[in-house]
């Protein structure tokens, strides 16, 4: 796929989504296969039946009624709002230009997309460890991505809008495969994860081994950080940090980054 350059179009601007997008119903497909099922099952076994029943009995009559009325489900609305804010936290904080330079990625919309997609996948993988609200949060983040993509592509002003729409549709279809590939790498070893990154980031073209290794380290590090955050902390957004490696990038590339 041939995408326009992205450097001069809203690269460092805030995510182009708005509150109105929250009012749309979820149309995003389930993009994560249940590879974390084992984790979820183990979590379920650790929760006693008594504790679950006690929690349910503690709900008042009003609370039980409210839970049965979708448009009054305040918790779901809050989770969806957090999903949009978590997406903005990615789009606004990631230093994409330095990412392009460090990992030798072309300065294109595609590169912006797959970097953003990788961070969304990390949040999605962590969210899906939460059986109750995980899917809501994941779907909300992905929904925010497509809302932002639609607005950014308009601002890019592609010469042939129909071709651009076709390419975006292709990215949408590929996103599920990318998530599955990253899931497999996360569940297995670094070689499998590096292979998934090579296929997605570099589109099966040449990639220096140290760049793939850097991506793997970045993912392992941030998955560790996310795993050590509670769901409440993640929904609070401010506890989710993507800064780590970018501080060193701003200080200049080290000699080990050279091929």
From TrEMBL:
Family designation: Belongs to the CBP3 family.
Protein name, as recorded: Ubiquinol-cytochrome c chaperone domain-containing protein
A GO term from the CC aspect: mitochondrion
PANTHER family xref list: UBIQUINOL-CYTOCHROME C REDUCTASE COMPLEX ASSEMBLY FACTOR 1 FAMILY MEMBER, UBIQUINOL-CYTOCHROME-C REDUCTASE COMPLEX ASSEMBLY FACTOR 1
Domain of life: Eukaryota
Lineage of the species this protein comes from: Eukaryota, Metazoa, Ecdysozoa, Arthropoda, Hexapoda
InterPro entries: Ubiq_cyt_c_chap, Ubiqinol_cyt_c_chaperone_CPB3
Domain Ubiquinol-cytochrome c chaperone stretches: 101-236
GO BP, sorted A to Z: mitochondrial respiratory chain complex III assembly
One Pfam family linked to the record: Ubiq_cyt_C_chap
